Amino acid sequence: MSVNNIVDKEVKPEYIDKIIVSHLGGNSSETDDMLLLEWISSSRENLNYFSEIKAVWYATGQYRTELQDKMKNAGTRPVGRRTLSRALYSLAAIALILSAAFLGFRTAGRNTVTVENVNSKTERVVLPDGTAIWLYEGSRLSYNEKRYDDRRKVKLSGEADLDVASNKLRPFVLTCPKITVKVLGTVFNVKDYPDRADAQTTLAEGAVELTLNRSSNKVSMREGQRVTYDQHTKDFKIEEVNTSRLSLRRLGIISLEDVTINDIVFRLQNEFGRHVYFTEPDVDLKKRYVFNYPENAGLEDIISLLEVVTSTEIEIE
Amino acid sequence: MDDRKLIERLRTGDRKAYGELYVRHKDACINYARLLVGSSPADDIVQDVFVNLWKTRSLILDVESVRPYLLKAVYNSSLNYLRGETSKNDFKNRYARQIQLLTAATYEPGANPLIDKLFVRDARASIDEAISLLPNKCGDIFRMSYISGMSHREIAEKLHLQISTVDNQIYKALRFIRSYIPREFFNSILIVALMDILG
């Protein structure tokens, strides 16, 4: 049960994926079926993988039929994106209220909502259009609640990851101390602390346009790029970076990259306020890991995951 | 009324209770049978299973739900059907039939946690939850297919995409849902699968 289960020595993984898709859709050729049969016969993992995808395909089909029947009976049109997003709006509103409980400050004077994160833990804020913002420690954002639907303008000071709801008619404008980022719907990180000389934007998905405040200098960014602006040298630096952490964030996964087991344990102790320790004497403290865990997981679950990833026994006090 | 009471009544020959059980479980049985044998013979297999439920009603044990019992019966009849001569003409080619046989054997209720989640218990909430977690584009495409019932071609035309892109996004979504449903196993599967679909 791993990524490797779809990597086969003889058939290229991308090709197998294509075959599976066409097989499920009923469009596979005889050769496709032959290759698929060979592939699933070659290992138990391959067979299980394909079986499970197929089971999900049929199970979701089951609900699709139920839904369509219901709609036919009720004499309504199929539920489209519109109805769904309305439900999403109300969810977002609830999430916003809930998140307030965890935040250091949330003030709403004259329709301006201000959220400031004084915790060491990243806080998630959901705006009325479903845009999600993960606010880092010591960062602050504000927006006008009443006018947000017409003008998607948000002020940010500090660092945040953003997953912006797509709306081509109303671009999302993020104003920071030194730079302004205009967005059409995307996932990116921005770091612009007032007390630092550099301002940084990293783009995982979509397209953004970066403008220097009080200037007409513009940079259009591509996916996977990081642009750093230095206030002293007045220079832009563009580099290609790995943005999988940002994409994972959107799926509710926290990703720690290039960390030692001590870094992970330290972070978890801080986050959960409990003591975590190794029970084995020979732990490799120098080894570096990429460690991912669901943001809403409990400490016990995270620890058992960490035990698997690092092959180390870990206890919680 | 819960299944247990309906089964009690069924044992005494109550036709109304039988009808209620049929309405309650036939869809799950038919979809499960379709997974096992494909569309055409699924309805017949399920009809037979329900006829047998009536015939053997006095033998049914005191159980919480009749669903596992029905699925097991569907599983047995389906495998018998697939192994028999009549099923040969249902498939495009002999490989497709072999594939069907191999996968069907992995779907035994009680032995496969994913099947239990998807068909025995109601996985609707988990599926909806998984769909809500999909990345924007992938989620939109999957919802168009899943909720609005649009064909891949219609979605491709509407979004100005290649059909193969739509195929791939739907496949990504399926892979994600598959890894999301059996969350007891998320430790090993979810994370890896997430890396996988994003990779």
**Structural class designation of chain A:** alpha+beta
Q: What ranges of chain B have pLDDT less than 50 throughout 5 or more consecutive residues? A: 184-199
Radius of gyration of chain A: 24 Å
Mean pLDDT of chain A equals 73
Classification by helices and strands of chain B = mainly alpha
Describe what is shown at a glance.
Helix content of chain A is 34%, strand content 31%. Chain A has 317 residues and is an alpha+beta fold.
Q: How would you describe the overall organization of this protein?
A:
The complex is a heterodimer of chains A (317) and B (199). The longest helix of chain A has 31 residues. Chain A is an alpha+beta fold and 317 residues long. In chain A, the strands form three sheets. In chain A, strands 1, 2, 3, 4, 5, 6, 7, 8, 9, 10, 11, 12, 13 and 14 form a 14-stranded mixed beta sheet that branches. Chain A has seven helices and 18 strands. By secondary structure, chain B is mostly helical. Chain B is built from eleven helices and no strands. In chain B, helix 3 packs across helix 4, helix 4 runs antiparallel to helix 5 and helix 10 packs antiparallel against helix 11. The longest helix of chain B is centred in the N-terminal third of the chain and has 23 residues. The interface between A and B is large, with 63 and 59 residues.
List the helices and strands and how they pair.
The complex is a heterodimer of chains A (317) and B (199).
Chain A: H1 13-24, H2 30-42, H3 44-74, H4 81-102, E1 105-109, E2 112-116, E3 123-126, E4 132-135, E5 140-144, E6 153-163, E7 172-175, E8 179-183, E9 187-192, E10 198-205, E11 208-212, E12 218-221, E13 225-230, E14 235-240, H5 244-250, E15 253-259, H6 261-272, E16 276-278, E17 289-294, H7 299-310, E18 314-316
Parallel strand pairs in A: 6-7
Antiparallel strand pairs in A: 1-2, 2-5, 3-4, 4-6, 5-6, 6-9, 7-8, 8-11, 9-10, 10-13, 11-12, 13-14, 15-17, 16-18
Helix pairs in contact in A: 1-2, 2-3
Chain B: H1 3-11, H2 15-37, H3 39-55, H4 67-83, H5 94-104, H6 113-120, H7 124-132, H8 136-146, H9 152-159, H10 163-180, H11 189-198
